Amino acid sequence: MTKRSPFKYFKTSPEIIRLEVMLYVRFPLSLRNVEDLLHERGIDVSHETVQFWWNRFGPLFASEVRKRRIEGLKASRRQWHLDEVFVKISGERHYLRRAVDHEGEVLESYVTKTRDKKAALKFLRKAMRKHGRPEVIVTDRLRSYGAALKEIGTMARQATGRWLNNRAENSHLPFRQRERAMQLFRRLRSLQMFVSIHASVTNHFNSERSLTSRSNFKLNRTAALAEWRQLLAG
């Protein structure tokens, strides 16, 4: 039995919907910025429509990207970098935790209300359930990580150092840019959904341009864009 297309009851073409979601997630643009960019391309939609498309198709695109990249994540068990940054939701402080592999691939993004052992343990178990146990786990000197790793039985794999965790800290920068454009968040659920989708899209288009030649970067960028245009096409 053929799978029903998620675009079936939409008059707008799938190509435009994919373009809108990519613009909104990948770049630090507001809903009205995306509306203006689409208008310049002769596409007349309101920012409310942009928001609806993003909420409806963003999770579907992110899920499809994760499925296609799952084979390439086997090497992610080599080394993980864990870090967290604070995020305000309606004025209340929360913590966005990330697990990043040695190549900068965001493996897991998870929002918690505290920085204690319980929150760190929940985050680690969630990440390991999906990706297995890494050989090395790089963290900062936050004690909750050590306590959580001790309970799991992987404390011997922990590594801490002044500059060792730059991978994880740098992975927060694209999110911070998006956070400013979105003028913060109002609900924990919407934040969790956004960071999950944002991580998948960032992974998909991340070509490590500083580590490859210009010709290879152009090939990788073209391949990533072509693959994005085929999401949910079947």
Describe the protein in words.
This protein is α/β, with parallel strands linked by helices and 234 residues long. The chain has 2 domains: 14-70 and 207-228, no CATH class; 73-196, Nucleotidyltransferase, domain 5 (2-Layer Sandwich), CATH 3.30.420.10. Helices cover 51% and strands 15% of the residues. The chain is built from 9 helices and 5 strands; from the N terminus they run αααβββαβαβαααα. It has helices at residues 14-26, 31-40, 47-69, 117-131, 143-152, 166-171, 173-182, 188-205, 214-228; strands at 79-89, 92-101, 106-112, 136-139, 158-160. The chain has a 5-stranded mixed β-sheet, sandwiched between helices. The chain is globular. The relative contact order is 0.14. The mean pLDDT is 88.
CATH topology of the largest domain: Nucleotidyltransferase, domain 5
CATH H-level name of the largest domain... which superfamily? Answer: Ribonuclease H-like superfamily/Ribonuclease H
Spatial sequence of strands, sheet with the most strands? 3-2-1-4-5
CATH class membership of the largest domain: Alpha Beta
Structural class: alpha/beta
DSSP strand content: 5-15%
* Sequence stretches where pLDDT stays below 50 over 5 or more residues: none
**What's the architecture of the largest domain in CATH terms?**
2-Layer Sandwich
Mean pLDDT: 88
Radius of gyration: 19 Å
